[in-house]
Write a structure and sequence with these properties.
The complex is a heterodimer of chains A (202) and B (589). In chain A, 31% of the residues lie in helices and 35% in strands. Chain A starts with a helix and ends with a strand. Among the domains of chain B are: 101 residues, Serine Threonine Protein Phosphatase 5, Tetratricopeptide repeat (Alpha Horseshoe); 143 residues, Helix Hairpins (Orthogonal Bundle), CATH 1.10.287. The chains are: A alpha+beta (202), B mainly alpha (589).
């Protein structure tokens, strides 16, 4: 209650000062001096004044503690999910990276496994920046039986000189009794500046 | 210098308050479209996609891929995902990245210690590390250490990073009160949004610190030239630049120059009400009362919560009065008073509902509360009454922070809800597996198989020991192969027994783990719900406080309007020679 009164006082003072300002400048003019349009558009912004308010530190501490526990719990949950759904002997993960000097602006990626669409992704600007800064995105994670398989990736985006590209890259691979990691990298040809798509099996 | 500071006091750094606002508006929209249950499903689906892609974090995968994955989440600004992915080894190896992620997810505890440890081992720190350290320090208002960190990476960054780097350095100098050094920091910048923001901030600083506005205006010109004005953010900044330039010219006593800038502000921009109001003031100063009234009248379509709209409402009758249109002035004062009264009713209504239901129910969740339909109208996102009120509330830093925290906690609650539903599926699948496993293992009779193997072995031994058996015959009958196949049968039986035992234990332990995780989810969910409730109370209190301020402002506006009315009536009654210029004047007389 006391804070509210104090804040009210501050606001009143602000208004009073704006009135005085207007009156000082135009005091000689005929009419209602303090009714003249003021140039100073006063917002009752308390954060600017001497009263600095913060969220209750107790709440912040509790929230931080909770966030940390949530991170830990999520970690355990992901681990549990991996053990259950994607055990190491049947796991297939597909990654995408973008070379930092590439001018290719990736719009989307479509991923097919044995001619069946398994993943599509539309990229935001921040994600392209993250990829260019060395980030590697996992675009697919799944389980796969042993044997021969075919992976096809279609890249859509704009290359140098705003040319639109739609390129497909296919890979036949053999899945054995352990996890399979496939990394696709987009780079750029130094001669004609066309995007290049490379595949690496780990 | 008051104009600039009051127009845009909160912009000293490039941060968009729209993010949190849009989050809440998005929540409203989703709920409005498909209802609460459907929205939750949508969120779950999104979570499935997001969480599914970042899923397992323990990297049996090559280290290069794992670190790249963390880097991708970190650089994309998905700090929660990045933190979940980081294992102990990564956190130890990359303390700065860990600190950045914690800082990004608004966990302050431990960040300083991590930075200290990182800076002690400064040999292993790279340019990006120093850049990240500098940014963390800058956001903690530690400008001097931030500048020291930024200094270590001079000329070692990409062009894009360099612009951001120069922006932070310039802002540090502005905060420390050295505009000259801020100019030096910006001199290498070639262009882009960061540069435009940096110059805009510098112009505000010049305008606040000096009576001579020419420097500020010059810097604003650079800010405008560097702004491409293509994206929404750039357009919004361009409007702010035009508004600030106009306000400075007005302050300088050049209203004719000011109007040309105010006219450039787009009408759908958040700066539009202020630009319209100040444009009216400029015309008023030029003596063009008709144009002034037109500008102020255009501002009437915006919400009264914006103080420039209230001022416009009050300025219209003033201009009429100055032009000698007494009857129109009276009409305009009546209209203004009615508008202020109407707004006061709205404020009281929102306040009483906030008191009754709390901010979460009124402002965050969808609600069909009777009498609040006008407030909850959701046809247009940017210009509804609710959006204007949100903008007004978010101008208060503490409310913004509280709402941001609320958004984070809501995200965590959604993730818990996602996992709870996942665990139900996992549980059912595991129990089914266990059931099948039990029935199949029951059918598997070890003793009977052993007996068969023994019988087979005995037959093989009998054949081997037969008197008629010669080495050639044994070779033709493949006796060694028969003997070894008996051995391998025994081995396979033994391994199968072990597998059955292991499988049984594995299933049991997975079920136990699932139950444990479920329990943890419940506990954390309860705690999250409790803290969200506390936060809701806090936000409600803060918003009501801010509403009280708005109420005071509205009462004051109402009083000013009434005062204007009285003034006109006094003038009329005092005047002995009132000319009946039209019927309305006669009526009021």
């Amino acid at each position: 209650m006391a804070i509210r009164q104090y804040l009210s006082l501050i606001v009143c003072c602000c208004f009073l000062s704006s009135f005085i300002q207007a009156a000082d400048k135009n005091g000689s003019k005929k009419g209602a001096g303090n009714l003249e349009p003021i140039k100073n558009i006063t917002q009752p912004n308390t954060s600017k004044g001497s009263v600095v308010k913060t969220i209750d530190t107790k709440i912040i501490k509790q929230a931080e503690e909770l966030k940390k526990e949530m991170i830990q719990l999520n970690r355990e949950l992901y681990q549990f999910e991996e053990d259950l759904l994607y055990p190491a002997n049947s796991q297939l993960a597909v990654f995408l990276s973008l070379s930092s000097d590439s001018s290719f602006v990736l719009d989307s990626v479509e991923l097919r496994l044995d001619d069946k669409m398994v993943s599509t992704y539309l990229y935001k600007k921040a994600e392209i920046v993250a990829l260019k800064k060395g980030g590697i995105q996992r675009i697919y994670l799944g389980s796969l039986s042993d044997g021969r398989h075919k992976l096809t990736a279609q890249f859509n985006g704009q290359g140098a000189n705003n040319r639109y590209f739609r390129r497909k890259k296919a890979l036949s691979f053999n899945k054995e009794d352990d996890a399979k990691y496939i990394q696709m990298t987009i780079s750029e040809s130094s001669t004609n500046r066309e995007p290049l798509f490379k595949v690496k099996q780990w | 210098m008051v104009i600039i500071s009051n127009i845009d006091i909160n912009i000293l750094e490039k941060q968009s308050r729209q993010t949190v606002l849009s989050y809440f508006l998005l929540r409203f929209k989703q709920k409005a479209l498909k209802g609460f249950q459907i929205k939750r499903r949508i969120l779950s689906c999104i979570s499935v996609i997001i969480f599914g892609l970042i899923a397992p974090f323990v990297h049996a995968m090559p280290n290069e891929l794992y670190e790249g994955m963390v880097g991708f989440e970190l650089e994309s600004g998905n700090f929660f995902n990045a933190l979940v992915l980081m294992d102990d080894a990564y956190r130890e190896k990359y303390p700065v990245n860990y600190a950045s992620a914690l800082n990004g997810f608004n966990i302050e505890g431990g960040v300083k210690d991590l930075l200290e440890v990182a800076l002690k081992k400064n040999k292993s720190l790279g340019n990006q590390d120093y850049f990240n350290i500098g940014k963390i320090q800058y956001h903690s208002d530690e400008c001097i250490p931030a500048l020291k960190s930024f200094k270590k990476i001079k000329n070692k960054l990409s062009l894009e990073d360099k612009q951001e780097w120069a922006f932070y350095r310039a802002n540090c100098f502005i905060k420390l009160g050295s505009n000259k050094r801020a100019i030096k920091a910006l001199k290498d910048i070639l262009g882009g949004t960061w540069a435009s923001y940096a110059y805009y901030n510098l112009a505000l600083s010049f305008a606040e610190g000096s009576r001579d506005k020419r420097k500020a205006l010059g810097v604003l010109r650079i800010a405008r030239d560097l702004n491409a004005g293509k994206t929404q953010e750039e357009k919004s900044l361009k409007d702010k630049i035009h508004l600030a330039a106009g306000a400075l010219y007005l302050e300088e006593g050049k209203p004719d120059a000011a109007t040309s800038f105010f006219k450039k502000v787009y009408l759908d921009s958040e700066s539009a009400p202020k630009a319209l109001y100040l444009n009216g003031v400029s015309h008023h100063e030029l003596g063009d009362f008709r144009a002034a009234t037109q500008a102020w009248s255009s501002a009437k379509k915006y919400s009264l919560v914006d103080s420039s709209v209230s001022e416009s409402l009050l300025a219209i009758p003033y201009a009429y009065e100055r032009s000698g249109y007494i009857s129109q002035a009276l009409e305009a004062y009546f209209e203004a008073s009615a508008s202020f009264e109407n707004e006061l009713e709205k404020i009281d209504k929102v306040d009483s509902l906030l008191e009754k239901y709390g901010a979460q129910k009124i402002l965050i969740e969808e609600s069909d509360i009777e009498g609040l339909e006008w407030f909850l109208a959701r046809d247009v996102v940017t210009n509804t009454t609710r959006a204007t009120y949100y903008n007004y509330f978010m101008q208060e830093n503490v409310i913004y922070d509280a709402v941001e925290l609320h958004a984070e906690l809501s995200m965590l609650l959604d993730s818990l809800s996602f996992w709870r539903s996942q665990l139900v599926v996992f549980d059912a699948s595991l129990k089914n597996k266990r059931k099948n496993f039990k029935s199949q293992s029951k059918n598997f009779n070890v003793k009977a198989v052993e007996k068969k193997i023994n019988k087979f072995k005995k037959q093989a031994d009998d054949i081997k020991s037969n008197k008629t058996m010669t080495p050639n015959l044994a070779k033709n009958l493949q006796m060694p192969a028969i003997t070894s196949s008996v051995d391998s049968l025994r081995k396979r039986l033994l391994s199968l027994q072990q597998k059955i035992l292991k499988g049984r234990h594995g299933l049991e332990s997975q079920l136990e783990q699932s139950a444990k995780l479920n329990k943890n989810i419940k506990v954390l969910n309860n705690r999250l719900v409790n803290i969200t409730k506390l936060l809701d109370e806090k936000i409600t209190f803060l918003i009501r406080e801010r509403l009280a301020l708005l109420r005071i402002q509205m009462v004051s506006n109402f009083e000013r309007s009434e005062q204007g009315l009285i003034h006109i009536f006094e003038g009329i009654s005092e005047s002995k020679s009132v000319k009946k210029s039209n019927l309305l004047d006669g009526r009021y007389k």
